[in-house]
Structures are given as C-alpha cells and as structure tokens.
Amino acid sequence: MISVQRGDMRYEGKAKRVYAVDRPDAYLVEFKDDATAFNGEKKGTIAQKGVVNNRLSAAMFTLLAAHGVETHYLETVSDREMLVRAVSIIPIEVVARNVVAGTLAKRLGLAEGTELARTVVEFYLKDDALGDPLINRSHALALGLATRPQLDELEARALRINEILKEHLLARGLLLIDFKLEFGLARDGRLILADEISPDTCRLWDAVTRDKLDKDRFRRDLGGVEEAYQEVARRLLP
Ligand code: UDP
C-alpha cells in the first residue's frame, strides 16, 4: 500500500468522502460504513461495509481494466481508502439491468425476478434533491448533460461492463441482476468509469438459491446485511 498526504475534504456523499491529495490529478476516496436508502429517508450503518466496498471496487476496477475498460482506480491506499484519477463526474447515473427488480418492477408492474429479453440501459439525473429522476436521451441533450456521442458511449460502455461483470460473477455463483455506474471526463475529454462497484450499487443474487446478497437486505430489512457483504467479498476477493 502506498502513502499519500490527505488534504482538504472536497465532497462528502452518503457512502464516501473524497479528499484532495498532494498531486492535482488524483483524489483519495474513503469508503464509509454509513448506508442510506430511499433517497436518504432510511439511514443506518453496515459494519465493515466501507472495507468490503473499497476492496470489491478495487477488484472490479482491476478486472475491467484487464479487459480494456478505463476506470478511475489508481491504487489502494488503506483498508478504506483508494487513490483515484481526478475526473469531472457526468451528472447521469447509468443503470444496466439483466433481470427485473427494484424501481423497474414498480414502474412497469413486472414481477421481480423476471428475465429481460435484452439488457436494459437507463439514465437517471444525478440530483439528490429530486430523488435522481429517470430521464431519457432527449432530456440529457436538452439539459446539456452530455452530447449524443457521449450518450452512445455511456450506453455502449455500460453494456460492455455488464458482459464482463456478469460472466465473472456467475463463475463465482452470483447473478448480476442490475447495477448503477457513474462516469467522469478526463481533462482530454476521455470517458472514464468512476464511483464504485459494490453491493451498494449492484443487485447480486445467489445463482442457486436466488438469495439477495446486496443492499436490498438493508433497504428491505431482510436481516443478515453484514453477512451478505462478507459473503460477496468471500466469493470475489482473492
Ligand atoms: N442504484 C444505486 N444508486 C441509486 C439508485 C440505484 O446504486 O441512487 C443501483 C441499485 O443498487 C440497483 C440499480 O442501481 O442495483 C437499480 O436500482 P433501482 O432503479 O431499482 O432503484 P432502487 O431500488 O435501488 O432505489
């Protein structure tokens, strides 16, 4: 593990803090145990979640990089901290779905667990005050959130990432139901995967029992929350 000088806090989100460091092209991300759901209405902590999510995100970013997908991950600094490349985050949350769950089940009146004939990619406006509303390409263009080629690239990138993750997880007994991605722009305009990949941002079901092994255990008070995060770590970390 490397050592970096932690500077001013630049941003505090629900599950992470972002700090400046002693080089201008990078940030330090600290993963917290804090958990929120329903746009912050439900609050709690999940013991050791920060450690698990830091390690899992590093492992998934490393896997993606090995498949040629550029990510912001640079190095792991400590149990709860990673060094990432400084990018400017595009305010669009990109969700990819293989199986119906969560808000898609509600919105379209479909049973959770229904297989989708093809992967669905959705865009949400990253805006906590509005509860991250679903938007379409036309909204994204009209609001100047991204250009048409960038939207195409976001969708293509999400589909590619889905293929890589889905196969990797299935080999370890996990179904990738859906997940959320955030991307940033590097100074030269390149699109780079940012944020995190963890059971906070992915729905993961046991491939045999279809037990939920992700944040839905916290959202829906299913119990065994810490154990689920540990189980995902056990299956995915070396
Ligand atoms: N998701 C997320 N952050 C959000 C909203 C969704 O990480 O602010 C993830 C969520 O964990 C799930 C996927 O994106 O894996 C799809 O979530 P959905 O739209 O069903 O909403 P949710 O039920 O999570 O509110």
Please describe what this structure looks like.
This protein is 29% helix and 34% strand. The protein is an alpha+beta fold and 238 residues long. It has two domains: 6-85, 2-Layer Sandwich (Phosphorylase Kinase, domain 1), CATH 3.30.200; 88-224, D-amino Acid Aminotransferase, Chain A, domain 1. Strands 8, 9, 10, 11, 12, 13 and 14 form a seven-stranded antiparallel beta sheet that branches. Strands 1-2-3-7-6 form a five-stranded antiparallel beta sheet. A two-stranded antiparallel ribbon has the order 4-5. Strand 10 and strand 11 (134-135) form a beta hairpin. Helix 1 (49-66) runs parallel beside helix 6 (225-236). It is globular and about 50 Å long. It binds uridine-5'-diphosphate (UDP). The site of uridine-5'-diphosphate (UDP) has 13 residues, from helix 2, strand 12 and strand 14.
List the helices and strands and how they pair.
Blueprint: E1 6-12, E2 16-21, E3 26-31, E4 34-37, E5 42-45, H1 49-66, E6 73-78, E7 81-85, E8 88-89, E9 92-99, H2 102-108, E10 115-125, E11 134-135, H3 137-142, H4 148-170, E12 174-185, E13 191-194, E14 202-206, H5 216-219, H6 225-236
Helix pairs in contact: 1-6
